[in-house]
Amino acid sequence: MSEEAIEAELVQGNVVVWDIDKGRMLYGSGFYGKPLGISKPKSLDFDAPLVLDVIEAVYLAEKGKLRVREGDRFLSFEELAARAEEYYEDFKEKYLVYRDLRDKGFIVTPGIKFGSDFAVYRLGPGLEHAPFIVQVKKSSDTISALEIIRSGRLATTVKKYFTVAVPDLKRGKVAYLLFEWWRA
Predict the structure, then answer these.
(1) Ramachandran category for residue 56: left, alpha or beta (phi over 0 → left; psi -120 to 50 → alpha)
(2) Which of 5, 31, 53, 177 could cross-link with 67 by S-S, CB 3.0 to 4.6 Å?
(3) Choosing from 92, 104, 113, 129, which is the catalytic residue?
(4) Among 34, 94, 137, 160, which one carries the catalytic annotation?
(5) Is 63 a residue of the active site?
(6) Which domains, and CATH codes, for the chain?
(7) Which long-range contacts (C-beta less than 8 Å, at least 24 apart) are formed by 30-33?
(8) Going residue by residue through the chain (184 aa), what tens digit of pLDDT does each one get?
(9) What is the CA radius of gyration of the chain?
């Protein structure tokens, strides 16, 4: 990707890259976002704007790869993060986990279809099925045995590892609990 940040627009909680060529470049650089109307792009030759989840946009803005405008002005990183807090419950915790996973080289997408916060890939969507589903929990949260069983059953059904991520905002670190199911 070039040194110059790509321009995008905040639209109702999503961030849209209207320039199709730049959207293709961004998608190709790490599977960021999805082309509008195309749930599983097979290649980079899509002909649609790229729609980013706001958490992806915050990450890309922090890395200097994206500039997001709202109306007629560009938002600072802090303003964009504050807007993301309006759309995400526990945004700071989820963002710390998202950033940690991305910085470690994983591809991170919304995990809503798996009932989790994130689906995490080693290679990327279309190249593999996501091996991990990640649920973000605060250290003060409780997790019941029923919730572990329910999540574990779902993860096993869709052939994924159920992972709980526990962010520590003060230290900027994340602890991961990976559940692996086996039969006795």
Answers:
(1) alpha
(2) 5
(3) 129
(4) 160
(5) no
(6) 1-88 (3.40.1170.20), 90-184 (3.40.1350.10)
(7) 30/102, 30/107, 30/124, 31/107, 31/109, 31/121, 31/124, 31/125, 32/56, 32/60
(8) 446 899 999 998 899 999 999 999 999 999 999 999 887 777 788 989 999 999 999 999 999 999 999 999 999 999 999 999 999 889 999 999 999 999 999 999 988 887 789 999 999 888 888 888 899 999 888 777 777 766 666 666 666 778 889 999 999 999 998 877 665 5
(9) 17
Tokens encoding 83: 């807007």
For residue 66, what are its two tokens?
A: 């994206």
The catalytic position among 34, 94, 121, 137 is: 121
Q: How far is CA 136 from CA 10, 150, 160, 162, in A?
A: 25, 16, 16, 11
Active site residue 94: no
Q: Is 87 a catalytic residue?
A: no
